[in-house]
Task: inverse folding
């Protein structure tokens, strides 16, 4: 089962500097399989599922195969993925 990349609705926006797109690119480059779970871009009150899952309202977040959820600043998420440490204990 692949990891789940919790992503905003702008899945077409592979723009440098876009937090969700940056983490997605890092997963692609690392060869890590993922499925995308889309959440509303705007309206924090509409992100009930994300809030329940991660305890906060920002994207992206990664749900690992064991159900644990990983969310940091996207630049730190990218660095961790690039270092091959996504699945290391935190
Ligand atoms: N500094 C954060 C920014 C994350 C961020 O703004 N993500 C967007 C989606 S790409 C978001 O959740 N926007 C909705 C909001 O700010 O409420 C990071 O790099 O992780």
Result:
């Amino acid at each position: 089962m692949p990891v789940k990349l919790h992503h905003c609705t702008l899945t077409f926006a592979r723009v440098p500097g876009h937090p969700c797109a940056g983490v997605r690119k890092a997963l692609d480059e690392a060869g890590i399989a993922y499925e995308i779970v889309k959440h509303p871009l705007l309206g924090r009150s509409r992100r009930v599922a994300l809030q329940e899952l991660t305890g906060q309202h920002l994207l992206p977040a990664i749900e690992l195969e064991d159900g644990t959820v990983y969310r940091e600043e996207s630049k730190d998420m990218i660095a961790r993925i690039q270092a091959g440490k996504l699945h290391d204990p935190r």
